[in-house]
Amino acid sequence: MQGFVPIMWSVWGVLVLLALALKIYGGRLSRDEDDQIILDDSFDRVKSEQAAILAKVHKIEPITRVVLWVATAMTVVVIVYYAIDMYRQFQ
User: Fold this and answer.
1) Cα–Cα distance between 72 and 91 in angstroms, integer?
2) HSE (side-chain half, CA atoms, 13 Å) at 78
3) Of all helices (H) and strands (E), which one includes residue 40?
4) Containing structural domain, residue 42
5) By the 8 A CB rule, do 9 and 72 touch?
6) Which of 8, 9, 28, 80 is most buried, judged by most C-beta within 10 A?
7) Which of 10, 27, 12, 23 is nearest to 77 (CA)?
8) Do residues 53 and 30 touch, judged by C-beta distance below 8 A?
9) Domain tally, the chain
């Protein structure tokens, strides 16, 4: 069972780093997003830029959500593993 612990922590670390990287990337993308409505036709270029940013943000949202859920599940696995280990030691 000793070979399981380093693998468990490695998987957890990779998932957390991936989730962090996706959150940072999403934040950097949405940083350039305007939160105002552009109604004038002379701003078509700005509208298309904002639409491209929004498309990128919406593209990574499901991936980020899945990675966060998997990282959360892996966190639960780590906690349960050590809870079972503590229970076995005190029997």
Assistant:
1) 29
2) 17
3) none
4) 4-89
5) no
6) 8
7) 12
8) yes
9) 1
Residue 55 tokens read as 């498309």
Residue 42 corresponds to which tokens in the numbers above?
Answer: 């002379």
Select from 31, 30, 26 the least CA-distant residue to 65. 26
pLDDT score of 80 more than 80: yes
Average pLDDT (63-79) is 95
pLDDT at position 36 is: 63
Give the tens place of pLDDT for each residue, 24-61.
Answer: 998 888 776 666 666 666 667 777 777 788 888 889 99
Q: Are 78 and 12 in contact (CB under 8 A)?
A: yes
- Of residues 82, 66, 73, the one with CA closest to residue 11: 73
